Amino acid sequence: MSLLKNTKRRLSFQRVGPSTLHCCVPLCTFSSRYNRLISFHSFPKLGNPLRELWLVNIRRDFTPTAGTRVCSRHFLPWDLVQKSPKSLRRLKTGSVPKLFHWNNYSLHSAATDHERDRDHDYCVTHGTENREAQPRGVLQGGEPVLQSQADWGLLGSGVGLERYACSDDHVHHYTRFTSYQHFQHFWRLIEPAVKTYMTSSDACAAAGSDSSLHTTKLPFIDELLLFLMHLSVGFPPEDLAVRFGLDAPAVSRVISTWGHFLSQLLGGTCLWLSGELVMTLLPPEFEAFSDTQVVLDCVEIYCQRPSATLGHTEQFSTYKALVGMAPHGAVTFVSPLFAGILSDCEVFRQSGITSVLQPHMAVMVVRGLLIEDVSRCRVHRPVCLPEHTQNQSKQSVEQIQAMVRLRNHVERCLRRITDYKLFDRTAPAPVCGSIQELFHVACYLLNYQSTPLAHP
């Protein structure tokens, strides 16, 4: 029996040719020396943006040479073309490696890339590795290749969600959802409403469209990705137009349409939670403040004012809003944006939150939100760690440390809003007309991007 096993082992690794090509992808051990069925493909030319995407996808930071190869096992079946059984297999233009050990050599679905203008690679099998290498070009003027293909995606080929399906880090960076699966779950929740809204006669009439709001070549889910990239990373329409293969006016229409739609859809859900549910979900940090119903803070947004005289006088450069979060991190209150210079106390008074607060509840505030004189509820304010704690008793030190941990927890929750790059800098003038809708959508999405919002 052991002899039979040894014979099979020798046959399975029998040398089939003099070629010594190896796949450069991590965790891949395929070699042309012992395999006739696998083909090996060289990298795109230097200066081709596709080259950087290959490096990002295979997760290697190195400089490919003329002899560096990626085996055909990492490409989708329809990426490979062979005119006859004896001819070389080659890659279709625009093909990139997508199947790896870390995604079990499979994807949920494979998006077909737009064809590029020039071929970039030819297959090399055993016995043909001495073929003259393709010339390596450089960008005109000596400019370097894009520094971060992970940020730029594939220019000119249409960025889509499936391009980032293998990397939860990329999905989180561009959308603020924790993973690709989490994003897909949110999409399944809103997909029926998306299709209904985009074809409704009222919405189309408001947008000036005859039959449908879907006027781009992108699928709805990729339009959502475009909108989230604008919101989360702050990419301007001109940048997104290059990434998605659209023109800038079309990108602006997508952003406006999705901002209005998500504002209506997510804003129609009741955010305010009952005191009993807040108590049930209370984190350990709030044990000493168990009557806390909501944590409040004022958020400031700065907008670029238009250069035109009329627009300059009608549009403000500073806006404030009051945002409330439950102790466990769910957004439970978002006020309208108040333009101009208003004190935090006045924003609290005009926000409308006093209509839902009851006298037996307590609110927690941080920083300079001085509302003790206008609030009918108890106000908690976590303190900072004192400079001198050497003479404090053990019980006093533990209480101070608990307050500091509580303050850190509160600030982490509130910092999630400013993680949106569109709002942690001066917003460009073109989006200021819809800044309130965009801000509200950003706040509503926080309840879906990490921990789902708890409902009674």
Describe the structure.
With 456 residues, this protein is α+β, with helices and mostly antiparallel strands. It folds into 3 domains: 15-135, no CATH class; 168-267, no CATH class; 275-385 and 393-433. 35% of the residues lie in helices and 10% in strands. It contains 14 helices and 11 strands. It has helices at 2-12, 49-58, 149-152, 168-175, 180-198, 201-207, 220-232, 237-244, 248-267, 275-280, 309-314, 344-351, 394-418, 435-449, and strands at 40-42, 69-71, 80-81, 90-91, 123-124, 292-302, 318-325, 331-334, 338-339, 362-365, 378-380. Strands 6, 7, 8, 9, 10 and 11 form a 6-stranded mixed sheet that branches. The longest helix is centred in the C-terminal third of the chain and has 25 residues, at 394-418. The chain is elongated. Mean pLDDT is 75; it is low at 1-16, 108-158, 309-314 and 452-456.
Low-confidence stretches: 1-16, 108-158, 309-314, 452-456
Shape: elongated
Largest sheet: 6 strands, mixed
* Beta fraction: 5-15%
Helix/strand order: HEHEEEEHHHHHHHHEHEEEHEEHH
The tally of domains stands at 3
Structural class: alpha+beta
Mean pLDDT: 75
Helix segment tally: 14
User: Mind telling me the C-alpha Rg?
Assistant: 28 Å
| Cα-to-Cα separation, first versus last residue | 65 Å
Write down how many β-strands occur, each being a DSSP E stretch of 2 or more residues.
Answer: 11
Helix content: 25-40%
Topology (SSEs and partners):
Elements lengths: L1 H11 L27 E3 L6 H10 L10 E3 L8 E2 L8 E2 L31 E2 L24 H4 L15 H8 L4 H19 L2 H7 L12 H13 L4 H8 L3 H20 L7 H6 L11 E11 L6 H6 L3 E8 L5 E4 L3 E2 L4 H8 L10 E4 L12 E3 L13 H25 L16 H15 L7
Parallel strand pairs: 6-10, 10-11
Antiparallel strand pairs: 1-2, 1-5, 3-4, 6-7, 7-8, 7-9
